[in-house]
Amino acid sequence: MTLPEWLVKEIDGVGDHAAFAGVDELHRGLHTLAAGYREITTLQRVGTSRHGEPLLCLTIEGAPGDPTGLVFGLPHPNEPIGGLTALHLASRLCADPGLRTRLRHRWRIIACIDPDGLRLNEGWLAGPFTREHYARHFYRPAGPDQVEWTFPLDYKDAYFDAALPETQALMRLIDSDRPDLVCSLHNGELGGVYYYLSRAEPALHRRLREVPGHVGLPLDRGEPEAPYIVRLDDAVFQGSSIRGAYDYLTGRGEPWTNAAGDSTASYAGRYGALTLVTELPYWTSEAADDDSPAGTGYASALAAHANALKGLSSLMEDTIAAVRDDLMVPDSPFWRASRSFAGMMASAARGARHRSTLPDTDREATVAEVASLAEDTHSFRLRYGGILLRALDGEVAVGNTRPAVRAARDRVASQHAEWLAEDRSIGDYRTIPIRQLVATQYGAVIAAAEHVASAVAG
């Protein structure tokens, strides 16, 4: 199968970007489109963020009876590709009646669902796009502060009902519109392109797998994000509910300690929506889609990953314990995230260690598997070690000169510098131009929309 001409034209028409967009630029973009296309658009405030930012949704009308598509960027605020994708999608739909007719949807487009979190990432959005600059300005919220993972959950003894204001805004839209298609615009960090779908759609799988290759990006054939994730196809995974994680962990005898809730896909699934999650990296390498034997045992690669994550979690837990009684801003977003990810990394280390002992891991690993495990090690160290360092820098910035805080800051900064040096020693990461990232994500969204419209039409 080759991509149809109309889809190729749309993908190739995505322009260059020198930087990712911050909150103000994304909001200006929606306002500009609403002002320029009043006859087919409505811009409304659908909610308010925890820090008082408006949550803006652009509606682009379709024909009576058309399916509804809900598209939102920044479900995790460290993933800014989706903001540009949402703006490009909205711009093309407004400007091209033929595209609107082909895709046959009523559209609800939110360029940024987590403006508070995006503002805490704005230090790296304009580059330079080095691993160090990214890590030192990186922020990802604690689990209970993530829009994507704070939908209601009531499963066995796992219960969550503290949906964030941003999540509640999405819930209201989903409940009122009952969308046929939901696109949660995520992205990863290293490796290749992969997708989550809330249900198997084989014809769409083929189209999604072809889009990255047209743009010049590899599919990701390495490790799935978690061992319980179901692979539907090459680089296409089942994305539904956190219930799978619960069953996997408790089935191994581990307690359920996740303090967050369920996902967009789970909530929208009650209305039969097809949810698409696109995952794209900022950096890639030749190993991302290399299925050849690595000459390394899979079990030993998992064990090495487990050891590295244990070292990371120990540093985070020990640091948090050492300064707990000396903090001036203990509830800052950076401390909340640090506490959350310390526990998450400890759990991930136990999981990787357990998997390394299973009979089915006693085999040779592929190049992609070894690379993805190593990349995850480096990514988690730089990300979460960087957030911890920002938490300590924040203490110093507000005048906390207590010895425990200063000593912890020096210790974490030294370790983070060592991890950066290890990451630089790999040397084969390629920074992906932003245009390729937006083009891939945009192509996936409109391919899914055409697929859904065709299915609804029968």
From TrEMBL:
GO biological process terms held by the UniProt record: proteolysis
Domain of life of the native organism: Bacteria
Pfam families documented for this protein: Peptidase_M14 (PF00246)
Positions of the Peptidase M14 domain: 30-208
SUPFAM superfamilies reported for this sequence: Zn-dependent exopeptidases
Gene Ontology MF annotations: metallocarboxypeptidase activity; zinc ion binding
Official protein name in the record: Peptidase M14 domain-containing protein
Species: Amycolatopsis endophytica
